[in-house]
Amino acid sequence: MAFAASFMAAAPTSEGHACGYDSPQTASQGFLNWLYPDSLYVVGAISREVAAGRLPLANFDQTGQDLFGHRFKLTATALAQFGNMLRVASSGPSESSVSLVVVEPMLWTRFDQGPDGLRTKIHVSGAQLGDLVLVAGEAVIAEIAARQLTFGQAVERGVVRLYGSAPQIAKFLLSYSDIGASDSAVETSQKQAFSLASAAAGLSHFASMESHPVGIAPTELGCTSDHTVISFHKGERQ
Q1: Gap between the terminal Cα atoms of the chain
Q2: Which residues fall within 8 angstroms of residue 65, CB to CB, at 6 or more apart?
Q3: What is the mean pLDDT of residues 197-215?
């Protein structure tokens, strides 16, 4: 904790590295793993899924020049479609807002509750206090958006991790585990959702996944809304 606090204090408040789509520097991943313990396990899980042929290689990891920001646009499109799936499946405005980070470029998206349901905000500075946080990979979101993978399957395979209170996680899994399913697979996916939500409600492992460590404010870890810098918030000790 002392090391992390000193690191945060030393970090610049108004400038830093650009996100992975703008620059190869993605040092924020290590800090993400500290704020959300074991969140980078999704990287290893994604590598296993790619090796097994169950996930395509992320566009971000493709070689060659990214002409006209094509890779970013593909990811943004998938995130927008994912957000639309959440909005359609949403049970109402009483649900928590959700923040999602795509780990390869550290691209944050927030699904904010509004009067007309969830609103998708792509390329935000980070999660807000009280958000349910999802950590996923670019290809994972693209496969869900293309209905080649359900959210529940992604969680079971470890290519998505959830951080928040146990009730938040359980409710989200019950509501959204079947998004990405084809019509013929919805019934099976719903059974999977119930199983995952029951595990989330009953296991201390899920209950320990708090949104932010005690004494640390939400931090801006990746791309900022103007594609330029990363800033860090210094937390107060309680």
Answers
A1: 13
A2: none
A3: 45
Q: What is the 3-class SS of 162-227, one letter each residue?
A: EECCHHHHHHHHHHHCCCCCCHHHHHHHHHHHHHHHHHHHHCHHHHCCCCCCCCCCCCCCCCCCCC
**CA-CA distance, 230 to 221, in Å (whole number)?**
6
User: Which residues are CB-contacts of 226 (< 8 A; sequence separation ≥ 6)?
Assistant: none
DSSP 8-state class, residue 17:
P
DSSP H helices, 2-156, are: 2-10, 28-35, 41-51, 70-89, 138-145, 151-156
How far is residue 143's CA from residue 127's CA, in Å, rounded to a whole number? 23
The 10s digit of each residue's pLDDT in 57-86 is: 988 766 667 666 788 999 999 999 999 999
Of 131, 124, 106, the closest CA to residue 210 belongs to 131
What is the rounded average pLDDT of the residues 130-141? Answer: 96
Half-sphere exposure of 18 (CA within 13 A, CB side): 8
Whether this model's pTM surpasses 0.85: no
- CB-CB neighbours of 80 under 10 Å: 14
Residue count (the chain): 238
Instruction: Give me the sheet containing 160-163, strands edge to edge.
Output: 117-124, 107-114, 98-102, 132-136, 160-163
Q: Can you tell me which residue has the tokens 């957000």? A: 83
pLDDT at 168: 94
